[in-house]
Structure formats: structure tokens, C-alpha cells
């Protein structure tokens, strides 16, 4: 089976381990009525949720991961950035918890999401702003920067590489290591684990294996912060399943050199996105800095904030000084 097809099979198997969205709760009501909230029309028929936090010269729009995650795991950004004069904009993408939902599967493509971001930019009146995308949001941030560089003062990608088959192959290797350790504890071996392919791998990914992967490579902070737990509970996993075929084939490598805005690529030592990907991106993007969070995993803004935010602030300040 080709690697891409096998990867799809494996990731599809993992979806049940993701949190499933709850019905609207008290936090939903509070968010919809919070100060700074603005619902923005996109595609002429939907509305997406945004919220402005603080006032400042530096405008920062945040793109969450998923697809189907929410802005909520960015809620620790103000405590680190407000004193630096950063005006933050949260935004839930279409089909995320606080925004409109649709069963129309035609909305699930990257070019449409890029246009959604542009409509959000227009609705917020942002010009010469900074765009930070995390994970899936990082894919969108790169795509947006390639099409609409004139609106950006700076680009930040967080815990995302440049080619899905590359960083997902590393994720497979990390799962294989965990499966091997779990088998050894039971006095067993899994012959051919490194060569059996991703299709067979799914049979060995138990809830215990998935839990260990999460604690090693997704969120190393224990206990998980309540804000993060709330965000995870609001993920709508069905949308991630719809987008999987597109996500596993995503390849931005040939366009890295086309990125024009000053760029910071943030990686993490324990993430499934290999640090080599981050180094490669730094070399290929013309005006690019890179930073590896030495204690972080996929959500480094939570499990390594002492390194994540100073690196982000340094980039913002340096870019501002250059004008």
C-alpha cells in the first residue's frame, strides 16, 4: 500500500481518541457574549466568531489547529503578550465550536480556508498584521502568506512542518517506539514493526499507547491546564476526518522560497514534527528565523511557555524595529 494511503488509514483509526465536541455549555454562552466579540460573515452565508483582546500597536491574528479545534488553547497568550503591546485576535474557523457549522463538505478545502482568513482580515480591518498559525493553522498561515503577503507584517508558524508525509512519518516512528515498549513490558515483541507499514500499525495502537503518545509528544504538562482541557473537549472530530485526505497529501516544499514576509518558525524538541523540518524551513524561506522549544511538545505554548513566548516576543520586537 502506498505510504499516503497507509497514513490515511492509520490517522483515521486515531480519530476516536480525539475529544468529541460537547453540546454548547456555559463557556459557550459566556464566549458569545464576551467583550470584543465580533461575528464576521464569510462565503456570503456563514458567520465565524472572533474576539479582540487588548489594545496595542502590534496586531496578532491566531489560527488554531484541528481542523475542528478552537481558539481556546490560545487563552494564555494575553498574559505573556499584553504587556508587550500586542493586540490579540482570537478566531474560530468555520465549523469550529463558536462559529457556524455546515454539512456542506465542499467547504473543506485549503483554498477556501485561505479565502475565509482573508474575509476575516477584512472584517477586522487588519492591515500589516502578524499571523500565527499552529499545527493545521500553520498550514493555513503558510498558504495565506503565499497568496496575500501584502497584508502581513510578519508570519509565525508553530509546530508544523512543510510536508505532511515527512512529519507524519516521524509520528509513525514515535508510535512504533511506544508500541515496542508496551509489548516489552508484557514480555512480547512485535516483529517487523519498523517495516510492517502504517496500515498494520493501527492494530497495535491501544488507548494506553495513545495516552502515552499524547503525554510525550502532544502535551507534556501534567495535570493538563483546565483551559487546554476545555479546548480539547470542544474539538469537533468529524471535521478532521473529512479533511484527512487533503491533510495527508499537503506539500508546501516547492513554495517555501516564495514566502515574502519576515517569518519565525517555531518547533519543539518533543513534538512529532521533527526539528530537522524546522531547520529546513529556515533555510528555504528567504527572511526566516527558527526557534526550537527545548522542553516543549506539540502544544509548546503550554508545556514550554518559558521559551515559547520569549522567542515570539523577540521576533515581534525585532520585526517592529525594522519597520
Automatic annotation (TrEMBL):
Looking at the UniProt record for this protein, which Gene Ontology cellular component terms does it annotate, in alphabetical order? membrane
| Every AB hydrolase-1 domain range | 60-305
* Any one GO biological process: proteolysis
Name of a matching Pfam family? Abhydrolase_1
Q: What's in the keyword line of the UniProt record?
A: Hydrolase, Signal
Look up the signal peptide feature and give its range: 1-21
Q: Where is the active site?
A: 135 (nucleophile), 271 (proton donor), 298 (proton donor)
Cite the Gene3D superfamilies for this sequence.
alpha/beta hydrolase (3.40.50.1820)
Please list the GO terms describing molecular function.
peptidase activity
**Can you tell which superkingdom this protein's organism belongs to?**
Bacteria
Keyword Signal appears in the UniProt entry: yes
Q: Which InterPro entries match?
A: AB_hydrolase_1, AB_hydrolase_fold, AB_hydrolase_sf, Peptidase_S33, Pro_imino_pep
**Family indicated by similarity:** Belongs to the peptidase S33 family.
Protein's name according to its UniProt entry = Proline iminopeptidase
Q: Which species expresses this protein natively?
A: Hymenobacter gelipurpurascens
